[in-house]
Amino acid sequence: ISRFSIYPTQEQNYSGTALEFLQDLFRSTVPSHKPQIQQRASILEREKALPVTAKEQLDLIYSFFGFSCTDLSKILHVSRPAIYAWIDATEPKIENAERIKYLAQLAFDIAPEPYCPMFYIFVNRPVEHNEKSLLEYLIDDNQSREFISALAKTVYQMSVERRKRIEDVPKAKHGSKSGIYDSFLDY
Predict the structure, then answer these.
(1) SS3 13
(2) Closest Cα partner for 186 from 134, 115, 135, 119?
(3) For residue range 130-149, what is the model confidence (pLDDT) as tens digits?
(4) Is the pTM of this model over 0.70?
């Protein structure tokens, strides 16, 4: 971005990105303007990382939720070939694009840079006194988005904690066995 406007009356020439400009401006500005600059910088960071195309959004959904193509086709109520077509850069219909965007936004809001994908058992089995699994709630369009968001956050946190427990288990020094077994980790 060569010209970037911070305030409606002030434009400056700048050779870096808009985010770099705001970061430089933040370091050199008066304290009273810092909250406004921080807010604009956080918006730019968020917009920069949010996937734009259906293919990018599907990649985020796959990497975050760990869904199979069959799972995703059930959630979106389409065939598997439709999913593959979208991955190959065919644009989905508007109602499918909105659902894909919702799932991508859900994943991005929980973890913009995921530490690990959700553990498939946590996604496919009921957790914390719920009647259904996260996958079943996503397939069934009758549940509120707030509930699904809270459940997805819980499942992701459980997955992160599981990953950390795995990383904390000492590795075997000799032999071919790694010494890491899920049965010892209590999921």
Answers:
(1) strand
(2) 119
(3) 999 999 999 998 889 999 99
(4) no
